[in-house]
Design brief:
α1 runs antiparallel to α3. The protein is about 60% helix and about 5% strand. The chain has helices spanning about 10-30, 40-45, 55-85, 105-130, 145-160, and strands at about 5-10, 100-105. A two-stranded antiparallel ribbon has the order 1-2. The relative contact order is 0.19. It is mainly alpha-helical.
């Protein structure tokens, strides 16, 4: 994908819900302490995993050196997604909640969206205790948001392939 735009079509209600999720994600990042020696939210810790699982000291040192920058970039990506959604999220009636809206994304925008949706899915997976596919309960409605984000992420991946 180069020098081309991708048009993401979602409903107004999806845009509203996604904006809410991204806002919550941004707030979580803002609340996170950047001190690697402090206890951080396990869901946020999943965004900055141990790079040396067999060496806790080296992992802690690496996290201390990179966590702030990595979470800052995740925050910038989330801001990009919110910026893209701002034109679609407004008051609407129940009748037009299902009306589609188009969001034009350039290559950088697509990547920011993919990274943000992935990060939010990781946070949700942490909250729900999902470590692998077997940890999901298809009858539990809490997994619906996780699945919906995966659906949207997969659509972006497929649309961005050459």
């Amino acid at each position: 994908m180069s020098d081309r735009m991708l048009i993401l079509t979602i409903t107004r209600i999806e845009a509203d819900h996604l904006a809410d999720l991204v806002t919550q994600f941004s707030e979580l990042l803002d609340e996170t302490r950047t001190d690697a020696d402090s206890a951080i939210d396990p869901a946020v810790a999943r965004l900055v995993p141990d790079v040396y699982p067999d060496d806790a000291e080296a992992s802690s040192e690496f996290r201390r050196a990179t966590q702030s920058d990595l979470l800052g970039r995740r925050g910038q990506d989330a801001e990009r997604v919110l910026s893209d959604l701002r034109g679609t999220v407004d008051s609407h009636t129940k009748d037009d909640a299902a009306r589609p809206v188009d969001i034009a994304l350039d290559e950088d925008g697509v990547r920011a969206w993919m990274r943000t949706l992935t990060a939010i899915r990781l946070v949700i997976a942490s909250r729900l205790g999902i470590e692998d596919e077997d940890d999901r309960d298809e009858d539990d409605p809490r997994f619906g948001v996780y699945d919906w984000l995966g659906y949207r992420l997969e659509g972006l991946i497929q649309a961005s392939e050459p």
